[in-house]
Write a structure and sequence with these properties.
The protein starts with a helix and ends in a 5-residue tail after the last helix. The chain has one domain: Rossmann fold, CATH 3.40.50.1820. Strand 9, helix 4 and strand 10 form a beta-alpha-beta unit. By secondary structure, the protein is of the alpha/beta class. Strands 1-2-6-3-9-10-11-14-13-12 form a 10-stranded mixed beta sheet, sandwiched between helices. A two-stranded antiparallel ribbon has the order 4-5. One of its GO terms (molecular function) is feruloyl esterase activity.
Length: 331
């Protein structure tokens, strides 16, 4: 009896010693770890994957290892664009980018061709939440399927999966932050020059599972998605109403549990750029909202090379988004 008791104590001691000392740094592996990926990547680390009748582009870092967990960054293109364009303007597949000191896996899903806008242009790929998207397409479900597919075919740190997007893709990124299931699937969100139609507002039908770390960029010279918002488009269609970006950021602060819309700090980290931060992390470490306002920037992903039309003194991906992502993991 004494021997059994000692054995039990030793077993418990061994279990305790095997647990991580800091649960916040413990990396949750996925079923894609430990074996070579069945996906056929080309010499540049790219593969286009078909999932049912949809597709997504994946890039793995040059130092990808099947027995090491890697963070994943999703990036959703703007209306009428595609996966390759989103890869180009964000630079998320560039060599040397790191999260948690390891190369990142970048995923660029492709939207379904929408119903078109009332501007007369041919319809292009769109994302759920926009008035020009196909109403019967469930992009949230598609995104969850892509996360599952990537996780089962690559070695992923499931605590470090992130979402970003531009314009219509930025609005969809915001919708993912508002969804009760995907808000707990992604560790942080980065909507850029986001088209925030009614179905993607943080205080309208927004039901995240908890506080959401969110970083946002918008140019004051954006004439496509105006910083000050609009009640309707030029044809008077109220389905195209957009919020004032300052109010949008304040609403996220309230959604995250902040008791005031007044920002915690106001700084100027880059030339012609103002950063307001709402940090309510005293009681919840995930309750952080950052808003970058860029003077002179139009409807663009901020970058020094002008790959998206506008030139800024900083690269949003490397100077702000990835450091923000690196600081936030799922509990």
């Amino acid at each position: 009896m004494i021997a059994l008791h000692l054995l039990s104590l030793l077993s418990l001691f061994g279990l305790a010693c095997s647990l991580p000392h800091n649960p916040a740094t413990f990396k949750r592996t996925t079923s894609g770890c430990g074996a070579p990926s069945p996906w056929a990547f080309d010499s540049t680390g790219h593969a286009t994957i078909t999932l049912s009748d949809r597709s997504f582009l994946v890039h793995i870092p040059a130092n990808y290892q099947a027995n090491t967990t890697h963070a994943v960054v999703f990036s959703f293109h703007g209306y009428g664009k595609n996966s390759q364009n989103q890869e180009l303007i964000t630079g998320l597949s560039e060599k040397g980018l790191l999260l948690n000191k390891k190369g990142i896996i970048a995923v660029y899903p492709l939207g379904v061709v929408g119903i078109g806008r009332d501007d007369g242009d041919p319809p292009g790929p769109a994302w759920q939440g926009a008035p020009y998207a196909q109403p019967d397409v469930d992009d949230v479900a598609f995104t969850k399927d892509v996360v599952a597919s990537v996780s089962s075919n690559l070695c992923v740190d499931s605590q470090r999966i992130y979402a970003s997007g531009k314009s219509n893709g930025g609005g969809f990124t915001n919708l993912l932050a508002c969804d009760s299931t995907t808000s707990s699937l992604f560790a942080a969100f980065a909507p850029v020059s986001a088209a925030l139609y009614a179905d993607t507002h943080p205080l309208t039908g927004c039901t995240p599972s908890g506080s959401v770390p969110l970083i946002n960029f918008h140019g004051l010279s954006d004439t496509v998605i105006r910083f000050g918002g609009q009640l309707a488009d030029k044809e008077g269609d109220t389905a195209y109403a957009l919020p004032n970006i300052t109010i949008y950021r304040q609403d996220w602060a309230l959604q995250d549990g902040c008791t005031t819309t007044v920002s915690s700090s106001l700084t100027h980290p880059f030339t012609d750029t103002t950063l307001k931060e709402w940090d309510c992390s005293a009681t919840d470490t995930r309750a952080v909202v950052r808003g970058y306002t860029v003077t002179g920037l139009g409807h663009s992903w901020p970058g020094t090379l002008g790959l998206d039309g506008g030139v800024t003194t900083f690269n949003a991906t490397t100077a702000a988004i990835l450091p923000f992502f690196d600081a936030h993991i799922l509990p």
